Every structure is written in C-alpha cells, then in structure tokens.
C-alpha cells in the first residue's frame, strides 16, 4: 500500500504544472459552459485585452457567437464568429483549445451550409 501511495505521489510531482487561467478567461469559459453566451461574449471581450490569453479568449468569443447564431439565426453572429476564428493563432493555443478551434471552424462551415 505504501509503495502504491509513493508511486502516485511521484507521478503527481512529475506531471507538468499548468498555470492557473487568468480570471477573465476563466469567467468567459464558465459562462460559455453555463449557456450564458451573452455573458461569455462580454467576458471574452475583456480577456482578449490580455496578450497571453487573447487567442483563447477569441476562441471563446467565436464559439459563443456560433451558439448565439444557433439560437437566433442572426447572420451577423455567424459572420462575426467566422471573422474571429480566422484571426486566432493556433500556435498560441493549448492542445485543448486547438481542438475547440477545429470544432468551431467545422461548426461555422456547417451552420453556413458550406459543406
């Protein structure tokens, strides 16, 4: 049992430590996940002003606009989401966010009926 505990602790120490997300970006993600797309858009707009999180925040902003487009069918939301997605720099995203970017790009094509 002690060997197992030591192994778990050792593995925990060897995993890369990831810095906590800035509050503005965390707030935008939380609002998006809660389905509050208006709030997510507002919080992401603030988080875009921080250079380290600008691309991740842009991604949250674009995905929120895509979801709002699904709800309202306002073509301005779809156009704005596409514009923001095209400006996101993939190299600045975490692997998780890179997947979200590809999903967002796919959604924008599907919703715009560009198969």
Shape: globular
The helix fraction, in percent, is over 70%
Q: What are the segments in which pLDDT stays under 50 over at least 5 consecutive residues?
A: 14-18
In N-to-C order, the SSE pattern is HHHHHH
Largest sheet: none
Number of strands: 0
N-to-C CA distance: 55 Å
pLDDT average, as an integer? Answer: 87
In DSSP terms (H or I, runs of 4 or more residues), the helix count works out at: 6
Strand percent estimate? under 5%
Radius of gyration: 17 Å
| Structural class based on helices, strands and sheet pairing | mainly alpha
Explain the layout of strands and helices.
Blueprint: H1 2-14, H2 23-33, H3 37-47, H4 54-72, H5 75-86, H6 95-111
Helix pairs in contact: 2-3, 2-4, 3-4, 4-5, 4-6, 5-6
Report on this model:
The protein has 115 residues and is an all-alpha fold. It has 6 helices and no strands. It has helices spanning 2-14, 23-33, 37-47, 54-72, 75-86, 95-111. Helix 3 runs antiparallel to helix 4, helix 4 (54-72) runs parallel beside helix 6 (95-111) and helix 5 packs antiparallel against helix 6. The protein starts with a helix and ends with a helix.
Quick rundown:
By secondary structure, this protein is mainly alpha-helical.
What characteristics describe this protein?
single chain, 115 residues, mainly alpha, 6 helices
């Amino acid at each position: 049992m002690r060997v197992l505990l030591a192994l778990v602790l050792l593995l925990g120490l060897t995993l890369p430590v990831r810095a906590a997300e800035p509050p503005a970006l965390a707030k935008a993600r939380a609002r998006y996940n809660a389905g509050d797309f208006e709030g997510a858009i507002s919080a992401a707009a603030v988080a875009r002003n921080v250079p380290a999180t600008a691309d991740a925040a842009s991604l949250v902003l674009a995905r929120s606009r895509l979801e709002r487009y699904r709800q309202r069918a306002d073509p301005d939301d779809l156009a704005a989401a596409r514009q923001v997605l095209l400006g996101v720099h993939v190299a600045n995203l975490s692997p998780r966010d890179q997947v979200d970017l590809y999903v967002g790009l796919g959604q924008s094509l599907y919703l715009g009926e560009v198969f």
